[in-house]
Amino acid sequence: LAKLRARLAKSNSSLGRGLLSLLSRDTLDESTWEEIEDTLIMADLGVDPATELVDRLRERVRVLGTRDPQTVRDLLREELIAVVDPTMDRSLQVERADSDPAVVLVVGVNGAGKTTTVGKIARVLVAEDRSVLLGAADTFRAAAAEQLATWGERVGVETVRGLEGADPASVAYTAVERGMQEGTDVVLIDTAGRLQNKKGLMDELGKVKRVAARPLSPEHDSLDEVLLVLDATTGQNGMQQAKVFSEAVNITGIVLTKLDGTAKGGIVVAVQRALGVPVKLIGLGEGADDLAPFDAAGFVDALLA
Ligand code: GDP
């Protein structure tokens, strides 16, 4: 985890350094506060959260009548943690029910990091001694199923695949059905993400979600997690896509990938606000172990490191 934190801190160091150098100026005047606000907006925090945060921070600094950089830094840390929201439940719902596996559907545009994320999650679950089955419900591109199966081999779990062009929902159904039969703990389903035909894709995902739940017992009436994988480097563009997905399927959590390659960590706040669901996991590299649970305080500390 220290390694991951270092990686996150490295990519965000310009943001942290920028903020800290602004805060340690002799005078905290109007233009300094504006620069702090701009720095937060540049980091993709979003205009409203950035403005609100700076207003609150200013007011607290004013009430305390302090210029002490360490005190102001501590207050900034507190305000950043508050805006990231430490109260959200970020635990991954992967506990199997009596006769049912937990079922996790992973959605997002092509290239966001879905398949990689499925592989990384499988790796974590296997390390926790859980049995895992992968479902390759991107039947549009043969290469996609191939890539998922390769991840499966790497982490030592089976992959259920359909023929190229098969109905993605039927592959998802088969994966869950097999998970039921085999007493699997968690079934992870990877999906297609081509956005050229938005309506078609959204209809498809809705159907995959419905059909994947069919083999489950009646009391287990919906999937355990629907994770939206979002590339942190796509900023506000990615936000538009995120909304489209959240309208098509009820998202339960966000996985923010490629945070190792951007200083725009503020996107965490923007996307949580836009979708009303927590960031649960973050991707910090291409390797199998480059996935970390998200936690507000740890994230802010890495940002300000
Ligand atoms: P998909 O089309 O959504 O399934 O995306 P892939 O899983 O194929 O990932 C697309 C590319 O992003 C691949 O080259 C991955 O190695 C890379 N990638 C995925 N997650 C991360 C991450 O957290 N950090 C970095 N740097 N690259 C990532």
From TrEMBL:
It is found in: Cell membrane; Cytoplasm. Keywords: Cell membrane, Cytoplasm, GTP-binding, Hydrolase, Membrane, Nucleotide-binding, Receptor, Transmembrane, Transmembrane helix. Its main location: membrane. Its EC number is 3.6.5.4. It is a peripheral membrane protein. It catalyses: GTP + H2O = GDP + phosphate + H(+). Residues 278-291 form the SRP54-type proteins GTP-binding domain. GTP binds at residues 108-115, 190-194, 257-260. The keyword Secreted does not apply. Involved in targeting and insertion of nascent membrane proteins into the cytoplasmic membrane. Acts as a receptor for the complex formed by the signal recognition particle (SRP) and the ribosome-nascent chain (RNC). Part of the signal recognition particle protein translocation system, which is composed of SRP and FtsY. Belongs to the GTP-binding SRP family. FtsY subfamily. This is Signal recognition particle receptor FtsY. It comes from Brevibacterium pityocampae. The gene is ftsY. The chain holds residues 92 to 396 of 398 of the full protein.
